[in-house]
Amino acid sequence: MIHAPERQDRRKAIALAAALLLLALFPFAGAAFYTELVTKVMILAIFALSLDVLVGYTGLVSFGHAAYYGVGAYALGLLAPPYEAANLWLTLPVAVGAAALAALFVGAFVVRVKGIYFIMVTLAFAQMFYFVFHDTRFGRGSDGISMNFKPVAAIGGFTPFDLANAVHVYYFVFAALVLVFVFLRVLLRSPFGRALQGIRSNEHRMRSLGYPVYWYKLASFTVAGALAGLAGYLSALQFGFVNPELLSWHQSGNVLLMLILGGVGSLYGAVAGAFAFVALQELFSSLTTHWQLLLGGTIILLVIFLPGGLASIAGRFKRTLVGEPDDE
Amino acid sequence: MSDVVLATLGLSRRFGGLMAVSGVAIELHRGRLHAVLGPNGAGKTTLINLLSGDLAATAGNIRYRGEDITRCSADRRSRIGIGRSYQKTNIFPAFTAFENCRLAAQSRAPRPFAVFTDAARHRPVREAAERALDAAGLAARGGSVASALSHGEQRQLEIAMVLATAPEVLLLDEPLAGMGAEEAQRMVGLLRTLAPKHAILLVEHDMDAVFAVADVITVMVNGQVLESGAPAQIRASPAVRRAYLGEADE
Ligand SMILES: Nc1ncnc2c1ncn2[C@@H]1O[C@H](COP(=O)(O)OP(=O)(O)O)[C@@H](O)[C@H]1O
Ligand SMILES: [Mg+2]
Question: Is the residue at A159 inside a domain?
């Protein structure tokens, strides 16, 4: 009798297929500038997705998520040998693992903390990471590290794609984005993911129902950190250098703004938010040097008039709902 | 049959200068429904909070099947079989009623590492959730968003969630408050069927319901136990009449 959800699902599936097709064909449109720009956006989309695990699905508003992005990026910068290319298949897992470890370490302290204090301690830890890379020999200071070679994707003697080629990088990042999206979709429907959403909704009751909330939050923080590390690694791979700005609080703030733009607690929203953020940034910076003012203003208006973010435009007002409602 | 499941000794909780619960000794037996009466502010909810681990005791101890659990976390107490409901409805408002219960049932089979499975398809947990909804009279409302349920239905959901965790001890804080007469009747019936296999502590203001289902009644006033005994004894007690029942009769 009620066809609305079905029709909505169909429409969603069509929109998704169209978006995937568009992204898959995009490099054929030719312009190298835009291919690289969209590569960058897709990396930011992975970053935003990773933060959404915390903010949108666990209820942990981290203001220091760039730390793990930076750790992933620096892992490549530090591991890349000066006179030859690093191997993708070795450095990528190390980068993701290093970011996961960093998040596990920080998470062990911060996930006990609640609300506004959580925001502050995540920021404080991120600042510590920033100074480690900015002010120590280990991090090579404020200039960061330039890599002389792009990593190679060689497996034995076989090299499936060439990471010095921007189009290949585009497709590699595209594949990573799709994988991360699908992984999170599956994870969030698993018992673990449902429990995270329960914690976001009512942590007290979750504890009362027998969930060891601390461990769930810590696992969430670690997964989010690992995925942020993946995004950071891809960014270092694309641009061939890393510097401490990758870990700065601006970066943590920007990714939060992407989520707010797109809609917290929606995977589509996180991706849409990354695209919208960069599009607005490009648009406004082409108009004026005071583009940050315009961007800020736009985001304020959006928060006031569209509190659910872009994801809510499609009438998806049920996005935080868990379970399948009978009607309405 | 005196199978003591949960017992407290000298249990106390201080809030600043106020002794909300003071030196309470209470025993819950499997197969018995133990009602706690007392005027507002007597410390009944605080007592439940101490037993469930929502609050830490400032003195005294709690033993569960012989084990001292005074310092145990609330989640561990839930896992070992102490379940509670809340006087002030405490649910997941944006989730469906079914998902509220499913999540409660999932706590008994958490499977956090089964990350590639769909939680909603796990049969044992689904069925436990459905049974709990059914027992609380919400079978037809599973698909409704919890925040859209009526106040009475939310009270039922509150009970369904505890039931879904299959506890051995049930600590129920005014479960009938806010329920319609018919639902309250149903809940009294449910308590009767639960009583033989559970140890139940029931805080309730509805005297008729309490005297209809209680095996033991404890009356609290100002954080202390005024009197404890069989319903007939409590009904006949002059002290209780003076301190509590008397007020209600007037
Ligand atoms: N968290 C708290 N902080 C301070 N005082 C409290 C707190 N919880 C309860 N109290 C006080 O403890 C006393 C007992 O409260 P409560 O246990 O809720 O009583 P009852 O459930 O019997 O009505 C009351 O005087 C109440 O104001
Ligand atoms: Mg109370």
Answer: yes
Token look-up 């849409």 returns: A272
For A210, the closest of B113, B143, B165 (CB atoms) is B165
Closest-CA distance, A160 to chain B, in angstroms, reads 28
Q: Is position A108 within any domain?
A: yes
- The mean per-residue pLDDT over the stretch A306-313 comes to 80
- R_g of chain A, CA atoms, integer Å: 20
**Domain edges within chain B:** 1-81+167-250, 90-166
CA proximity to B159, closest of B100, B81, B208, B217: B100
Q: What is the pLDDT of residue B249?
A: 45
- State the distance from the centre of ligand 1 to the C-alpha of B46, rounded, in angstroms: 6
pLDDT at A208 over 60: yes
From its phi and psi, is residue A280 left (phi > 0), alpha (psi between -120 and 50) or beta? alpha
Position A290 in a domain: no
Ligand nearest to the CA of B51: 1
A187-197 tens-digit pLDDT = 999 999 999 99
Residue A99, in any domain of the structure: yes
CB spacing of A321 vs B103 below 8 angstroms: no
Section B152-163 average pLDDT: 96
For ligand 1, say whether the CB of B56 is within 6 Å of any of its atoms: no
A-to-B residue pairs, Cβ atoms closer than 8 angstroms: 119
Q: Comparing A5-19, A142-156, A182-196, B157-171, which segment has the lowest mean pLDDT?
A: A5-19
Highest CATH level, class, for B1-81+167-250: alpha beta
Q: Tokens in use for A34?
A: 């835009």
Model confidence at A84: pLDDT above 60? yes
